[in-house]
Each structure stands twice: as C-alpha cells, then as structure tokens.
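Q: I have two molecules that I believe assemble together. Could you output structure tokens for the complex as a whole instead of separate predictions?
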Amino acid sequence: MEQATPTLEELNQLVQMSGTINMEIFYWWCIALMMVIHAGFLSYEIGASRLKNVLTAGVKNILAFAFIVPTFFFFGWFIYNGFAGGFVLDMEAASAALPWSQSMGPNISDNATGIFWGAFALFAATTASIMSGALIERTRMSAFIILAVILGSVVWILGAAWSWHPTGWLTTQWGFHDVGAAGCVHMIAGFFTLGVVINVGARIGRFNADGSANSITGHSMPMSVIGLMLVIVGFFGFLGGCIIFNVGGQWTNIYGQPATLSGFAFNTLMGFAGGLIGAYLTTREPFWMMSGGLIGIISVAPGLDVYYPPLAYVIGMGVAASAPLVHKFLVKRQIDDAVGAFAVHGFAGFAGLTLSGIFLSGYPNMGEGVPPVNFLGQFGGAVVLGLLGFIPGYLISLAMKKMGVLRVPAHAEERGLDLTEVPAQAYPEWALTGASTTYVSTDSASATLVVAEVKTV
Amino acid sequence: MSSPISSWEGASAIFTFADKPAVTVTIVVIAVALTVFAVWATIRHEKHSYNSPMTKK
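A: Yes, here they are, computed for all two components at once.
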C-alpha cells in the first residue's frame, strides 16, 4: 500500500506542534514539582509548631495556597502584564490577562497562557508560604489570609513585573539581572514577612522581661527537616519555571538571553551543597543545615545561567554561614521570626543580588539601549525590591494591629490554637493520656529551663 | 447554551460562555464575592472560637 509523502510544510507543522506540546509538558511537570514546595512548607511549619498548634499551622498553610490561586487569577496575572513600567498601568499589554479574556481559559489556539499562569500562580503561593512559617502560633487566620493575598497576588508580582519581565523597568533602565527570582520572590517575601513579624509581636514566652530570649521548640524537628528537603526538591520545578522553553530554539532566561538547563543544574547543585556546608560550619544542626541548602540556592539564583559553578559553591557557603547570624541579630532585637524566614529568604536574596553585582558586571542585556549588568543596577534593584516588600508588609500589618485583628487573644494563644479553632486532633493518643506539653527553654544549652504543662482530660 | 462553539472547525476559545462576555464577567464577580465571603466566614469563626467558654477555661 502506497503511503503519501508529507510535504515540507506538513513536516514543519508536525515539528512545531510537537515542540509546543513538549513545552506544555515541561511546564506542567514544573508546576507539579512546585506543589512539592508546598508539601515541604506544610511539613516544615507543622514540625516547627508546638503540639497545641500543629493543625492550625497546617490549615493556615493550606489556606494560603487555596486563596492565592483564585486571587492570582482575578488580578495577579493582570498586574504582571500591566505594570512592567512602574506604577502606571499599560492596559494594552494587560488586556489579555483580564480574568474574562479569551486567553484566560481553555483555548485551543493558545498553548502558553494557562501553563505560564499556572507556573506563576505557584510562584505566588511560594511567597505566601515563605511568610506563613514566620507567623505561626499567634497570628489570626483571617489576618494571615489577607496578608497572604496581598503578598502573593499583588506585591511580589508587581516586583516581578519590574524585575523579572523582559520589559520590566529595572532591567530596561538599570540592567537588572535575576534569573532565579531571588529578588521578586525571596527578597520581597522575606522583607514583607519582616514587616509583619515586627507588628504581630513575639509568641508568649519567647522573651523575658529583661530582654533575654527563650527558644520555643517545635514538636518535631525531623518533620521540619524532611519538609525542608521537600522544599529543595520542589525548587527544581521552581527553577525550571524560571527558564523559557522556546519551540525550535535554544532555551532563554526570562529576559530573553540564551541559557541552558545544564547551566542551571551546575549552579543549583553547587550552591545547594555550599549552603549546606556553610550552615553546618556555623550551627552544626540539621534545621539550619537544610535551611542553608535553600539559602545556597537563593544566593546564587541571580546568576544561575552564567556563574562558574565553584563560584556558586563559595557564594552559597558564605551566605548560608552568615544567615544564622542575621537570625540571631533579629532575636536580640526581640523579633520573633519563628522559622528564620527573613534570614533564609530576605537576607539570602539581598546578599545574593549584591554579590551578583560584583560577579555578573559586564554581561550584556538584550534590547537596544538596555545597560549591561552592573553593580549599581543589582544593588539598587535589591534595595527597591526590599522596600517594595517591607513597606506594604509593615504598614498593612500595623493597620491591622491598630484595629485589633492581627493577633489571637492571649488566652487562645496560651491554651493552644488547635483546641480553640480546629475541630480535630493532631495526635489523639496525647489527648487520651492527658498530656499536653509546652517546652520553653533558654537559648543557652547549659542552662535549660523546661516548662511543662500537663493537663488532664 | 453554555457552549461557545457549534463545530470544532476553526475553534479557538472553547471554555463555557466564552462567547458571552456578560456571563463570564458575572461569574467572575460571583467568584470574587465567594472568596470575600470565605474570609468573612473565617473572621466569624475566630470571633466565635475566641469567645467560647471552653476556650476561656
């Protein structure tokens, strides 16, 4: 039986459609991997909570994800497309991102919008999860949801429009380069969180009247450490979502510069390993080591496409070794960031961007008249993004504090939020034996004060 | 009819009511309202929980 020979045009269409579908498949699995970030944050945060707050921490984390996805559909994607130039809306660029546009739903002539929206929605949910852990055990669920929506569907995506978009003003005017979103995701989330943590205040028992600190230990460090490892696994989806799959051409980074996934693999792993070792050197404990791995990746994220891998290793190690000191500095200032979110995300992003100003200087940007990467552009961009995160986080949470809607009442905090708010039990056996323990110890290992509350049912 | 197409030939946007902008806008408004309602319900639940005699024991 004779087979018809396909024409050149038919073959071309076949290759093109095959490439388009491969592109969709690639981002589909990036989205799936990014879901693992949330599984990780869930485990991490639950482990870092005391027994009496375990389920509330879980509910809070899940709700962050749940509220970010629809709100990112309603207005987050619109902000990304409409505000690349600053605060003035470019309606022409944003019109296709309106929630009722023909692109914002199943459309068989558009294979890109949904899959990119999905990846960005997961980035958005990551920013909210970063904040979530810092606020455990004393923040109202409703306040957290509102703050999460503002951070995840407004603030970070405005920063992404400015700094992580081919026509973002930080790139076109200052030459800003941050391929792995250290600035718009991590720094903004970290600085926003810092602003909120200042206003929400410390957990009861965290600090003494003389200003000295007690460590409040979560109920399961293994759960937290495994959670952090899951976050790292999910990061490969996150970073995959930071590179553009061009059908029929080389990968490019988000700014349109040629890049390879191979380059990302070199530097992600070397930064990760450096971070683990750096945190081990200054803390010797697994919680900070795994956080250090994350810090290592974040600190090299701006130059994942071009760093020499041993340099990424050194940067990751140095920043991760320093981050626990930043956390200690906050504790001395009586700022209770329960999981070190500012040190891990805010500080690491800032340090990574500042160092990238030294090491990436001179790399050309795309587009006529766009300056090459330079120190002032990188450092200035980091300052802009830090302020973009901190100012709304601080002011909005301050307003909530004044209205009395930011923090749970003291009696609920002391009794435990699970008992107060959640109609379920995390560990029913504990209820049967009547043991509900709260461990509060001083930071000094040599002088451990343990307070145990034992309640009978 | 919620289908925006009568044939797959030349079809583009195929989501329900894609050819009726007034309906899609209305659905978005309802979805936003439900999201706001969920936040309000959370606030209500908190108030109830914090004032419960069980919690204050």
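A: One point stands out. Residues 442-457 of chain A have pLDDT under 50 and may be disordered.
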